[in-house]
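User: Could you write out the 3D structure of this protein bound to manganese (II) ion? I've included everything you need below.
Assistant: Certainly. Input first, then the structure.
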Amino acid sequence: MATDPLPVSGDSLNQRLAEKGLRFTSQRQHVYEVLLGQRDHPSAEEVFMRAKQSKPEISMATVYNSLDALVKCGVVRQVNVDRGATLYCSNMNEHAHFCCDDCGKVFDVNLKNSPRVPEVDVPGEFEVRTIDIALHGRCTGTCEDCGRREAHA
Amino acid sequence: MATDPLPVSGDSLNQRLAEKGLRFTSQRQHVYEVLLGQRDHPSAEEVFMRAKQSKPEISMATVYNSLDALVKCGVVRQVNVDRGATLYCSNMNEHAHFCCDDCGKVFDVNLKNSPRVPEVDVPGEFEVRTIDIALHGRCTGTCEDCGRREAHA
DNA sequence: TTTCTTATTTAGAATTATTCCAAGTATTGA
DNA sequence: TCAATACTTGGAATAATTCTAAATAAGAAA
Ligand SMILES: [Mn+2]
Ligand SMILES: [Mn+2]
Ligand SMILES: [Zn+2]
Ligand SMILES: [Zn+2]
């Protein structure tokens, strides 16, 4: 599916961070660029490995910090689909996630137009901010990884 | 919200397990009863503590095994809302989860009638089996725990 | 029943995922 | 330019889950 046509970048990221009282740093920018560079659903560990390629001195702690900062300022979302590591998604369009229980890969799926968001009966004492929709099942197509539960993407 | 009016029990659990080639054991039954006895959203650790009260010899590994077995045979669902431990829900009615980002508690919320399930555009190569809907926000009501992120329920 | 086969349980070790820490460094704003 | 504070870092610590190998229980067959 189409990913965000307007990913935040440069000064814009700076602003987004500032709005939340967070500072703009080269590490945060770099982590964000890593996410934009390959728009799949990597774990913190995977982001760390990609980030090190062009910034070998970055630390795991900073990757976690940066991911948290990016999530807080709304340019990245967390994806929790199973018992494994949290994944990160840089597509901020409204979409759901399909997770293959067989190969573990996560894919974006579009929500159909109209009432995009499921109609929920939320008691008054709850203030809803975000809604995460996760579909589970199997990818039946040409997934060469299906069958082994290791390979994530 | 109302929890499942027909929780599986006794022979019925036996059958459900058998259908999946799993054996009925006193541990699995006990773990299931623990979940039915307090229908909130405990973590494996929490289930372990509750289970030990009336069956002190049960082990953590068995709790994980039992929870997995119960999930596999469809009488319990897993709930993954954040970076923390996986939670377990014994309410098998169709419902969504509200997770308070402040106090961490998870509550069941009803999906409105009509198209209960969100309309998603799933590419042909995916076979959807289950859909999980998680709402995030804050409980604004009389939550005495709100403000500290420890206490889960 | 008795026996055989295989699944399950158990305690504890091992792994994985994430958070915490203390010291040095960068950023902000006065 | 300086002080205050946020951020980064490597490594230790913790939390969550999985793995292991030996003992036990369950189901099927005889
Ligand atoms: Mn996504
Ligand atoms: Mn529930
Ligand atoms: Zn697959
Ligand atoms: Zn709350």
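The longest strand of chain B covers residues 126-139.
User: Perfect, thank you.
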